[in-house]
Amino acid sequence: MARNVALRRAAPPAVVGLALLLGAMTVGYAWVVARHLRDDARETSRLLGRVFAGLNDPHPDAATEALLDLARQVRSLGIPIVVTDTAGRITALDNAPPGVAADPARLGAWIARLDRENLPLVQPGVGTIHYGALPVAQRFIGLAALQGAVFFCLVVLAVWAYRSQVAAARDRLWAAMARESAHQLGTPLMSLTGWIAYLRDNPDTTAAEVASHLQADAERLERVAKRFERIGRPARREPIGLGAVAERVVSYFRPRLPTLASPVTLSLAATGPGPTALGDSVLVEWALEAVIKNAIDALSGRGGRIDVAVEATARTARVTVRDDGPGVAPDVRAQLFEPGVSTKPGGWGIGLALARRIVEQQHAGRSGVRAGIPAGEREVSLALNPAQEAAVRYPGGPLLVLAGAGSGKTRVLTARIAYLIQERGVAPARIFAVTFTNKAAGEMRARVATLLGADPRGLWIGTFHALSARLLRREAALLGFGPNFTIYDQDDSESFIKRLLEQRGLSPKAYPPRAIHAIISGAKNRMLLPE
Ligand SMILES: Nc1ncnc2c1ncn2[C@@H]1O[C@H](COP(=O)(O)OP(=O)(O)OP(=O)(O)O)[C@@H](O)[C@H]1O
Ligand SMILES: [Mg+2]
């Protein structure tokens, strides 16, 4: 483990060193090659001078001498050359690798290799010329290999740099999230501590006076805990009333706005608890809070107004936050939603990054700042699927919905309840929602409350047993009972039957109470009265 870490730490500097070394070698090598080429050019030019001098010399052998000189010079360039005559005999051989000339078999193989490199030239009167590459070409191949190695090192470095940048962004996000959680928990905790101190100082305070404040703080703490629990998971898809969510966020901020110097006003334009969108109310609330917080920050010290609007279009819902502050600084506009981008002293740049994650990744919505409007603006778009929408808005009487596990039955039911109350004006007391378990009933009630933005008083939501008991207590007077009756379960009923049998001197052995209980139950099912 430790060795691995040490290795990983040492690897990038080692690669940098290697790249520098290879780069320096490439430069040196290229310089040497250039020098060689320059020397070759000088030698060739000098030779040309001598050839011309020989041709102009009136001495009869001078021209031949010049040509021989030329041939020598060409050989000295280092090009491997073999000349064969028409019979295949070697008439000239130059720059062969050592030992090849003496060994006919190796000589034949070498000539074949030259022919593969370059097609042989046929020169009438001389024969066939087989030739190889200039030595400088070999040097170029070396140079190319060196450059390849440097390039490889650079690619390795680029990948490493990219990965460490991603890791750094993740670390920043991490640290910012930790700070954000501490910050969000801190506010209600501080308030709670304040109330405790107040109670200490004023021991005569009645509980009722502070209970609602304490409860508000506790609720806030609970909400914050829920946020951090849910941000890392796929978002829930429950119907949420965006108007109700916006109302909650706005009422959270209102008492906290600056009112004396540089006052900030916060207004909400929404037509009610709706429109309904599918999502996680805890997270959407968080996103909206981050955006409104930014608007408040932007207006701090100068005052101004913030307008929050909730609108519904045909298939989407939109929440807009607009402030008349200075607008987004041009140099951060392009990366506004990146984590760590902030113009505030002590800002972590986490607010908008979180909001975008919530809206775009967790709710498949869109978010953005509108160009030209000098203010932060957010859009949240969420929707029910068409079949669910149809079930929720069904206008007729009975409707049977068949839906598998996890397909959103509770979502449809709660959205329908909210729809009936909000848009069809049905009184909550006329809605009866029955389910099997207490847990499901509690969940349903909570969701309807979220949708409506308030606990729907009088709504009948519960299990068969709870709702029946409620009905019985309400209507008991019709049967001549008071509302304080006790409901017997199976065991209670059986021991009651046993007691009755004993009173009549009958043996429970001969008349098993369980059998009698079953007979009575059967009679009740067939609506048979005791007579
Ligand atoms: N309504 C706005 N008006 C002007 N600038 C804004 C507005 N909203 C956001 N910005 C700019 O976008 C930047 C990023 O916002 P973001 O909420 O991501 O981080 P932050 O507010 O700086 O820090 P944090 O939210 O983590 O405390 C801000 O620093 C600010 O420059
Ligand atoms: Mg912010």
Number of H/I helices: 15
- Do you know the CATH topology of the domain at 236-361? Heat Shock Protein 90
Q: What CATH architecture of the domain at 236-361 would you give? A: 2-Layer Sandwich
Indicate the low-confidence ranges by residue numbers.
Answer: 371-382
Secondary structure class reads: alpha+beta
- Fraction of residues in H or I helices: 55-70%
**Largest β sheet strand count, sense and barrel closure:** 4 strands, antiparallel
End-to-end distance, in Å? 86 Å
- Tally of extended strands? 11
Nearest-angstrom radius of gyration? 45 Å
Output the helix-strand order. Answer: HHEEHEEHHEHEEHEEHHHHEHEHHH
Small molecules (ligands, ions, cofactors) in the structure = adenosine-5'-triphosphate, magnesium ion
| The CATH homologous superfamily of the domain at 236-361 | Histidine kinase-like ATPase, C-terminal domain
What is the quaternary state of this protein? single chain
State the shape. Answer: elongated
Mean pLDDT: 82
- CATH class category label of the domain at 236-361: Alpha Beta
Proportion in β-strands: 5-15%
Q: Give me the side-by-side strand order of the main sheet.
A: 2-1-4-3
